């Protein structure tokens, strides 16, 4: 029997929050570095990839190097395998990190591929296609709630903060032998119940949202706004979201132009002087 005790939810929670703060700091520094060489268009198009790179860099320098993360060191806890007697192996740690960083995106990508294959498969009847696509779409909409569902279980039993650690069965023990602070856990039980209620409401709203209404709205939008160069933002090169008009007469996404103006005081197209007060959101713009 191990002389080390499994850690409580309070220490795990503080460690994870500390780690999130640190790799977000790496993300900001990496974004600032790439901004000087690649520009705003590259940053806006690759925000998610840059964030994932920051996470991978942080965990490669800590967990994959058989070291504690700074959050784990801060709260004096150590990762262990299922038995609690050994630290996770390289394959187990690598799988956990990849699932944590890319898991949600890979699930959504697989569901998108399934939907695309079903739509173009002529051997499947229209009724079967509709049912499969509706099911896959519902599952896809629930993927962002996967972490929240795991959080409900974590608050209740205090074992796995992320679903990736739960899948690969990576737990925590206190770094000091025989150390086990006595702390009331009823607060976490209450938090688990409240989170479960909130999550249930979100899942009900997501599952019972009428797919037909959403589909009709998207088709109507596509008919009104063809995806050509005139409907794309000059900064992110994607269809404009919340179209905004600059004082000099150019159209951008609201978020893109304001991110640009945080570090520049001119229009990215005509280079005329521009500040955030000279950008107007266009309501009901087509």
Automatic annotation (TrEMBL):
Lineage: Eukaryota, Metazoa, Ecdysozoa, Arthropoda, Hexapoda
Pathway where this protein functions: Protein modification; protein ubiquitination
Similarity annotation: Belongs to the pex2/pex10/pex12 family.
Chief place where the protein resides: membrane
Membrane topology: Multi-pass membrane protein
EC top class named in words: transferase
An annotated Gene Ontology molecular function: ubiquitin protein ligase activity
InterPro entries tied to this protein: PEX2/10 (IPR025654), Pex_N (IPR006845), Znf_RING (IPR001841), Znf_RING/FYVE/PHD (IPR013083), Znf_RING_CS (IPR017907)
Gene Ontology CC annotation, any one: peroxisomal membrane
Cell compartment(s), UniProt: Peroxisome membrane
Enzyme Commission number(s) of this protein: 2.3.2.27
A Gene Ontology BP annotation from the UniProt entry: protein import into peroxisome matrix
Organism field: Melanaphis sacchari
UniProt domain RING-type: residue ranges: 233-271
Source species, domain of life: Eukaryota
Protein name: RING-type E3 ubiquitin transferase
UniProt keyword annotations, A-Z: Membrane, Metal-binding, Peroxisome, Peroxisome biogenesis, Protein transport, Transferase, Transmembrane, Transmembrane helix, Transport, Ubl conjugation pathway, Zinc, Zinc-finger
């Amino acid at each position: 029997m191990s002389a080390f005790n499994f850690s409580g939810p309070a220490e795990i929670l503080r460690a994870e929050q500390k780690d999130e703060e640190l790799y977000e700091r790496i993300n900001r520094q990496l974004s600032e570095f790439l901004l000087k060489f690649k520009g705003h268009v590259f940053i806006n198009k690759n925000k998610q990839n840059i964030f994932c790179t920051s996470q991978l860099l942080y965990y490669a320098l800590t967990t994959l190097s058989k070291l504690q993360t700074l959050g784990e060191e801060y709260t004096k806890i150590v990762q262990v395998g299922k038995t609690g007697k050994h630290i996770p192996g390289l394959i187990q740690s690598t799988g956990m990190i990849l699932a944590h960083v890319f898991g949600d995106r890979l699930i959504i990508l697989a569901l998108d591929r399934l939907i695309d294959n079903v739509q173009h498969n002529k051997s499947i009847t229209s009724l079967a296609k509709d049912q499969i696509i509706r099911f896959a779409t519902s599952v896809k909409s629930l993927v962002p709630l996967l972490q929240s569902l795991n959080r409900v279980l974590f608050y209740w039993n205090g074992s796995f903060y992320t679903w990736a650690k739960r899948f690969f069965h990576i737990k925590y023990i206190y770094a000091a032998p025989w150390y086990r602070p006595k702390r009331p856990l009823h607060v976490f039980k209450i938090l688990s119940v409240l989170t479960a209620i909130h999550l249930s409401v979100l899942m009900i709203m997501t599952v019972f949202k009428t797919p037909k209404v959403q589909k009709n709205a998207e088709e109507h939008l596509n008919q009104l706004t063809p995806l050509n160069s005139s409907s794309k933002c000059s900064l992110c090169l994607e269809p404009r979201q919340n179209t905004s008009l600059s004082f000099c007469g150019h159209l951008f996404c609201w978020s893109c132009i304001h991110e640009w103006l945080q570090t520049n005081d001119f229009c990215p197209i005509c280079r005329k002087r521009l500040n955030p007060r000279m950008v107007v959101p266009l309501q009901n713009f087509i």
